[in-house]
Amino acid sequence: MGQLLRCLIFSMLTLNMSGCSDTIVKSFAFHPMRFNADHYNLDDSGVQDVEFTTEDQIRLHAFYLPNPDNKKLVLYFHGNFGHSLHRLNSAWHLAQTGVNVLLVGYRGYGRSEGEPSEDGVYNDAKAALRYATQELNFAPENIFVLGRSLGSAVAVDLAQEREFGGLILVGTFTSAHEVMSEVGMGWLRMFVNRRPFDQTAKLDRVTAPALFIHGERDRQIPLQLAETLYQNYPSPYKSMVTVAYAGHNDIFHHQRDKIWTRIAAFIDAPQKEKGRTEYWQDVQ
């Protein structure tokens, strides 16, 4: 935060905004945490540690949950805080629906090398896709991309001009500019000379069917941003699920089993339903 403050002060004094953009984006978009092999035990779990390398020679770590009898794979891109080990339980629930799951650790997160950046995490996603197609031998049409929060921007970027089976966007948004404005930090936009994580600008190059899932009480990424992205999403095969009483970080705690069942139905459907919206009341 000290670096960010110095950057803002320097920018205001010199009117040099361009040098501050990347610092602001990195400071607010990424909150990585590390772990090592001593922090967990995969014995008898069926989960595998895997590694692959990006085009810029960054070694990435991921968890692979195989289901050999199923030809479909979910690439799981998590949110901006913590690391992939925090999402392993969610990946396990997803794998229980019968699909294969590759839970990707971004650069700078968990056991992956490097430092996170917007272009960097996009490159991480491309490396994960290469690993999925070339090493794990999944066909692109059998690959579904699940992006949670920041991961939804990674998913949409990866889906450009690719024929995936579908996108699953959980806690998604239009662009980082709109997120900053909605949470009362719109003043920072004057220091950012581009539109980071702009999903709306990429939609005309995305054709995959999509399932949107969002918490009604999300205060970090308000529901209206997801609704705007949904309305502008070009594929006729799109659905949106709004979960009552759920916020941003607890969405899988509300209607958890029903959410995984809905995701499984989306993956299994031979033809995705058109324009379907659902509102789920929370049932204790």
From TrEMBL:
Read off the InterPro entries from this record: AB_hydrolase_fold (IPR029058), Hydrolase_4 (IPR022742)
* Sequence ranges assigned to domain Serine aminopeptidase S33 in this UniProt record: 69-189
Q: Name one GO molecular function term.
A: hydrolase activity
Q: Provide this UniProt record's keywords sorted from A to Z.
A: Hydrolase
Q: Which residues form a coiled coil?
A: none
Q: Which Pfam families match?
A: Hydrolase_4
Question: Which protein, by its recorded name, is this?
Answer: Alpha/beta hydrolase
Q: Lineage, please? A: Bacteria, Pseudomonadati, Pseudomonadota, Gammaproteobacteria, Oceanospirillales
